[in-house]
Amino acid sequence: IALTGPESSGKTTLSELLAKHFAIDFVPEFARAYLEQSNGTYEKDDLAKIAHGQLRAILSAQQEHPTRKVLISDTDFVVIAVWSNYKYGSIDKEIDALVHSTIFDLHILCEPDIPWEKDDLRENPDDREELFALYEEALNRYGKNYIVVNGSYEKRLKKVTKAIELIQK
Hints:
The protein is mainly alpha-helical and 169 residues long.
């Protein structure tokens, strides 16, 4: 299960709630650790490194827990592709290939209907609705199985757990 959506749309909080609900760890967003080391400075080439770092973290979690039925990733490759295209006007072929992969059974698109939380690594407080539309367009273009969540975290959690139960049947 991958969470996707604009900055400050609740991906990490929802990942934490899902991890608690399923009594598992979640795969954190690799970009955050990467950007903390570079003081938030990055260039287009760094996005492929971030994507590969996220992939390694996901694969490592799968290898650590091969029998676990649910794996939650705090981000996905759609996030990186949309951001790359939005900020730099193109998507690296390696990132595009990762977006086309079938690692995730379900993507959770988080609507930015919650208050913006300032963070030194966040860049776009004013374009969240525009970015949300770009995420939804990308999920459709890439043929991803996804649901949109909005509202309170309780409402989001209930919708996601129900969707996960449905795909596990």
